[in-house]
From TrEMBL:
The chain crosses the membrane at residues 90-109. This is Anti-sigma-W factor RsiW. It comes from the Bacteria. The keyword Transmembrane applies. The keyword Plastid does not apply. It holds the Pfam family zf-HC2. Belongs to the zinc-associated anti-sigma factor (ZAS) superfamily. Anti-sigma-W factor family. Residues 3-37 form the Putative zinc-finger domain.
Length: 204
């Protein structure tokens, strides 16, 4: 047996995978060859060391385990409101929408002071400064909205009349077929805007 072949059999010998004739032949070669015998002893020592490490590893104590676990960062607890938001996405979206509408409407209501008139028959109206006048001989068909101004009705309105943040005056000759709304407070303003928003969305 040559040395190269003997070295190739050493691992199988240590694992008890060689047949009896091969074991005897390798043992005879190791007795005759000092280099292979020296190499085999080193290989045997390494194999025993690996076996010792894998089969006799020291088990960590409970105290060490607790200290290591204590050093690990603790998972953050979710706040109650975050959990509620995750469980109720539709209500959260609706609430956010109302908050945005509230602040934007209050901002608009508090800052905008320009006269705004909405009517399908604008040419029948008389506007003097911040006052919108419906003359006695005029009939306005459809809704009329006056924002940030005064409305003086002497004629007829065949629709709804809404006055926002202003004043409404109706003469004895006035006739309004629809509803009359006089909005001069922030909450009324907000409710009016939100109602109109949903009404417009329903008819689109």
């Amino acid at each position: 047996m040559d040395c190269k072949f003997a070295i190739s059999l050493m691992h199988d010998y240590l694992d008890n995978d060689l047949s009896d004739p091969q074991q005897l032949e390798l043992q005879k070669h190791l007795l005759d060859c000092a280099d292979c015998r020296n190499y085999f002893e080193k290989l045997e020592h390494t194999d025993m060391l690996l076996y010792s490490l894998t089969h006799h590893a020291t088990k960590p104590s409970d105290d060490l385990t607790e200290r290591i676990m204590g050093m690990l960062p603790k998972p953050k607890k979710q706040k109650v409101w975050v959990q509620w938001v995750k469980n109720h996405p539709a209500l959260t979206a609706a609430a956010l929408f109302l908050v945005v509408m509230l602040f934007s409407t209050i901002s608009f209501w508090s800052q905008d002071s320009q006269l705004v008139v909405k009517s399908d028959e604008f040419e029948k109206l008389v506007i003097e400064g911040d006052t919108v006048i419906i003359p006695q001989d005029q009939i306005i068909t459809g809704d009329l909205t006056v924002e940030n101004g005064k409305a003086k009705v002497y004629g007829q309105v065949n629709g709804n009349l809404t006055v926002i943040d202003g004043e409404l005056f109706q003469a004895s000759t006035a006739h309004i077929a629809g509803q009359v709304k006089d909005i001069d407070r922030a909450m009324d303003w907000i409710w009016y805007k939100i109602s109109n928003l949903f009404t417009d969305a329903a008819y689109r």
